[in-house]
Amino acid sequence: MVEGEVQHGLEDVVALESRICFIDGKGGRLIYQGYDIRDLAAQSTFEEVAYLLWYGRLPTAAQLRDLKDRLVQLRTIPPGVLEIIDRIPRDSSPMDVLRTAVSALAVFEPAETQPGASSIGGAQRLTAVLPTILGYYHRRRSGLEPLAPHPGAGHAAYLLAAVSDRPATELEVRALDVALILHADHELNASTFAARVTASTLSDLYSAVTSAIGTLKGPLHGGANERVMELLDEIDKPERSDEVIRARLARHERIMGFGHRVYKVEDPRATILRDWSRRVGEAHNDLHYYRILREVESVVHREKGLYPNVDLYSGSIYTLLGVPKDLFTPLFAASRVVGWTAHVLEEYQDLRLIRPMARYIGPTDLTYTPIGQRS
Ligand code: ACO
Q: What are the contacts of 216-221 at 24+ separation with CB within 8 A?
C-alpha cells in the first residue's frame, strides 16, 4: 500500500488491534477469542459463546448458569418502548423497527447505556431484549398471541418462539443455536466497524448498536440471505440453476450468498450451515432448497470461481423453521449484537477517536456568486 493512496472500501486497511475475533481468509478459519468456530458450533451454545466474546474466556458451569438466568431476567421491554413500536406502521421493515426500538430504549434506561467497563450490563440487556422486540412486533402484525415469557427457554428457543409461527423441535432450536453462534462476531465487518466508530467518539453503547443495526440492514451485508431465497424461488428447480445464474451474470448482477472481502476460500460458516441445511431438510422431508443450492454453488463456482459465504444456506434453514424472510436480517442482528457490544467494550478500554481522511478531488478556487446573480 502506497502512502496517501486511497484504499476504496478500506480494503486491506488494518484499522485497530483486537483480541476478539480472527479471520484466516486464506486458510478458511474463523476464531473467537482463540477458539475455532468449528469446535464452538459443534460443542457450545450461543450463551457460552456470548460469555466468551464478552469476557475473553469460556465460562464455568456456574458462570454460564448465571448468564443464562440474567438474560432471561432482562427480556422485558419498558411500556414506553412498546407504545413507540405500536405506532410504527405494520408493513415496516423489521430492521427499522429494531433500530428504532433500540434507540428508544436508550431514553428509558440511560444508566445501562453509559460508556465504560460497566457497559457489559447494557450489552447483556440488549442481547436479552432483541428477541422480545422482534416477537412483539412480528406477532402483533401477524395477529398472533403475544409472545409468552418462556422463563425456562434458552436464548435460541426464545428467539425462535418470537419469530416463528409454530412450535419448534429440539433439532430446530439447535439449528438456530448454531446459526447464532456462527453469526455472533466477524472481526471488523461493516456493522461492527460502524459500532466501533460510534463508540470511539465516547458515545454510548445503545447509540453504537443503533449505528450497527442501520449498517447491517444493507443488502451487501446483512440482507443477502433474504435475496438468496428470492433467487431460489425464481430458479424453482435445480436443473434451471444454470440458465438463471448465467442470465444474471450476463446482466452483471451479483449472486447473493457468494464472495467475501476477506475469505478467499470457502467461508467456514457456510460449510457448517450447508450441513445444517441438509439436516433440517431431511428432518422435514423437504430438500427442495438444499438441492437447488448445491446446484447454484457448482454453477457459480464454475462461472466465477466464487465460494459461498455465510448467507448462502442460512435462509434455507430459517424458512424450514417457519421464519418469514423479512426477519432473517433481524435474526442476524439478534446474534451479532454480542459481537457489536464486545467490540464496543474493547473500544472503550483502548479508546482512540476513529477518524480517517479523504483525498479531496474537488476544486478549491471557485468564486462565490451571490444567489441573485446565478443562472
Ligand atoms: N456475484 C458475482 N460477482 C461477484 C460477487 C457475487 N456475489 N462477489 C464478487 N464478485 C465479483 C465482482 O463483480 C468483481 O468482479 P470484477 O473484478 O470482474 O468486477 C470481483 O468479484 C471482486 O468483487 P468486489 O466487489 O471487489 O469484492 P468485495 O470484496 O468488495 O465484495 C462482497 C465482497 C460485497 C461480499 C461481494 O462478494 C458481494 O457483493 N457478494 C454478494 C452479497 C453477499 O452475499 N453479501 C454477504 C456477505 S457476508 C456478510 O456480510 C454476512
A: 216/95, 216/190, 216/191, 216/329, 216/332, 216/333, 216/336, 217/93, 217/95, 217/96, 217/99, 217/329, 218/190, 219/256, 220/190, 221/189, 221/190, 221/191
Strand partners, 151: none
Confidence of residue 150 (pLDDT cuts 50, 70, 90): confident
Q: What is the mean pLDDT of the chain?
A: 94
Q: What is the mean pLDDT of residues 318-347?
A: 96
Is the pLDDT higher at 237 or at 111?
237
* Catalytic residue list contains 150: no
Whole-model pTM: value is 0.94
Question: Looking at residue 1, what is its pLDDT?
Answer: 63
| Catalytic residue (one of 221, 284, 288, 301) | 221
Kindly list the protein residues whose Cβ atom lies closer than 6 A to any atom of ligand 1.
9, 220-221, 224, 254-261, 304, 306, 309-311
Place of cell 496517501: 4
User: Residues 13-46: pLDDT tens digits?
Assistant: 899 999 999 999 999 999 999 999 999 999 999 9
Which protein residue's CA is at the shortest distance from atom 22 of ligand 1?
259
311 in catalytic set:
yes
